[in-house]
Structures are given as C-alpha cells and as structure tokens.
Amino acid sequence: MIAVLKQGTTPEQRDSLCEWFRNIGLEVHISEGKFHTILGLIGDTSRVDIGLLESLSIIESVKRISEPFKNANRKFHAEDSVIDIGGVLIGGGNFQIIAGPCSVESRDQIIGVAKRVKESGATLLRGGAFKPRTSPYDFQGLHADGIELLLEAKKETGLPIVSEITNANDLELFRDVDVIQVGARNMQNFDMLKQLGRTNKVILLKRGLANTLKELLMSAEYIMAGGNERVILCERGIRTFETYTRNTLDLSAVPMLRELTHLPIVVDPSHATGISRLVETMAAAAAAAGADGLMIEVHNDPEHALCDGAQSLTPDQFDRLAVKVRRVREAILK
Ligand code: PEP
Ligand code: MN
C-alpha cells in the first residue's frame, strides 16, 4: 500500500504517521520526491482502514499495490534510483559501460584489457573469477587469485570492478569488489540473495535464462527486503526456441522494467547473442531502448579466450561500439 502525503506536510506530521504505521506492525519506506512524499507500507495492510486514512488532513491519496514486489516498485519510489559505485553514477540519466573479459586469465590480460576499455570510455571493469560453467571440465576461473588480479587492475586504472559470486561462502573474498554480480544461473538462489541483502554492496542481478520479469523483480526484492537497496537489473537474453543466437535478447524488457521499477537497467548483448559480430548492433539497440548501461565482454585475444571467446570483442571492436553507442545516446537525448 502507498500513502501519498499532501505538499506542505511537516516532518513532524510525517513522522507521527509513520510511527502509527510501525505500531501496527508495518514497515514504512519513505520516498521524498520533488513534489510529494510517498510512504510505502509493507506487511499486513489489511488492518489499515483506508477510509480513515484518506480522511486525514495530510493525506493526498491512498492506493493498494497489487504487485508482489514492493521495494523495487516504481509506485513506492517514483524517481529513478541513482546508484553510486565508487563515484561512478548509474541510473536516472547516468549511463555507464561495464567492459572486460568473461574471465580473468592472467595479470597481463586483465590489466591490458582494463587499460584499453578505459581509453574507449568504459567506466567499470568486469572479469569473472568464479565461473559457472555448463561443463565441470571447463575452466572454472582463478578464484581468489582472479579477484586479486582484478584489484590490481583497479589500482592501475581506477576503474571500479564487477565480478560474479557463485557461492555466498565466498562473500569475504568480495570485500573490495565494487559490484557483486549474481549470474543468470543464480538469480533464484534465494539464500544467497538474502545474504547479499544484508551487505552494503552494489548488486548486479542478471535475469535467469527462463525467468519472467516479475521473477527478476521478486529476486531484486529478496535483496532489498534485507535492507540493501543498491540493486542493478541486467537483461542478458532468455531461452527461446531460436538457436541461431545463444539466447534471445528481450529488449522490450527495458521499457517494461522502466515502468515497473525505479532500479537501473543494464543490457548484456554479449551473452544475449553469443556472437561477437552481433554485439555492436544490439548494444546500439539497447541504448536506443533507454538502458542505463551495457555490459560487454572484451578480450585481448578472443580466439584463445578460456571462456566465451565467440562473443567477446577485441579492444578495437569495443572502441567502435563505444563510439556508436555514444552517437545513439546523443540522438535519443535530443
Ligand atoms: C557472465 O557474465 O560471464 C555470465 C556468466 O553471465 P550470465 O550469468 O548472464 O550467463
Ligand atoms: Mn561470459
């Protein structure tokens, strides 16, 4: 349920109403907008007498929220959330590109790629240290050493780093990682989501291979319900009957999520297509659709990459992509 307060409501009036809600067992989420304050009420709201509430002098309107996601809901928080990642802002008109290899392979590789993508305009560096591979015989990542190398690359370039967690027991290793990625395969690992909800880390939550947008938002809700509101959503393609591309990029997810939630929305055309020559086009399309950011796999030598080489761009190809995306952004902002 949301209660919109009238303009001119004093902080004392607002606080005493919040206190009343809390006394009847509700959690209150306060969103201070430019014109209105919205109180989002979570819990058993059946005990709230809407008629009585509407009759209060400070209440503009009261509405029940039918969606099961509350914290992530735009009705609770009308303005876009802007997330600060070590000084890099995303959301609310701030657009960022996350780039880097699928997996961290060596010091030279990650530092070399980090420098190149930074020159091209990437503002966050990605690199997997724990890789959820379909085959147990494939490269599984450098684990703690991979995180160490990412931190070295961060020191060299100043780029905040993004890396995937596959097991909540590894959380301590991510102490200095700026953004923890929850991969598609773990989108509904609810225990892990709950643990991440108790941290103060920015979480990049990727859509599961066969999950609806509602399920994605409910997974975000798991994190937010624990008190961590810094969640970024990522559309990375879903499983359909099409087989020419690795997945099917659901670009309508961007405007749909934009309506449903205030959280920033990133698109990953690398995993969505699985084919490097399609990545630039779909990155441009994602920017045109209004995404808040992109995640792009870039490798110094894609042919010999230990993971996801077929979809990885060379630094030169990434440079061209970044130029094109900037042009699209300029065109849609006009
Ligand atoms: C990745 O980002 O390298 C990755 C494994 O992505 P996804 O979880 O979307 O497959
Ligand atoms: Mn990958």
CATH topology of the largest domain: TIM Barrel
The helix/strand order is EHEEHEEEEHEHEEHEHEHEHHEH
The radius of gyration over CA amounts to 21 Å
The distinct bound ligands, ions and cofactors come out as: phosphoenolpyruvate, manganese (II) ion
Distance from first to last alpha carbon: 37 Å
Return the domain count. 2
Name the CATH superfamily classification of the largest domain: Aldolase class I
Describe the strand arrangement of the main beta sheet, using strand numbers: 7-8-9-10-11-12-13-14
Strands, total number: 14
Write the layout of secondary structure elements.
Layout: E1 2-5, H1 11-23, E2 27-32, E3 37-42, H2 50-54, E4 59-63, E5 83-85, E6 88-90, E7 96-100, H3 107-120, E8 124-126, H4 144-157, E9 161-165, E10 179-182, H5 190-197, E11 202-206, H6 213-225, E12 231-235, H7 253-260, E13 265-267, H8 269-273, H9 276-288, E14 293-297, H10 315-333
Parallel strand pairs: 7-8, 7-14, 8-9, 9-10, 10-11, 11-12, 12-13, 13-14
Antiparallel strand pairs: 1-3, 1-4, 2-3, 5-6
Helix pairs in contact: 3-4, 3-10, 5-6, 9-10
The protein binds phosphoenolpyruvate and manganese (II) ion.
Notable characteristics:
334 residues; alpha/beta; Alpha-Beta Plaits; TIM Barrel; eight-stranded parallel β-barrel; four-stranded antiparallel β-sheet; 10 helices; 34% helix; binds phosphoenolpyruvate; binds manganese (II) ion
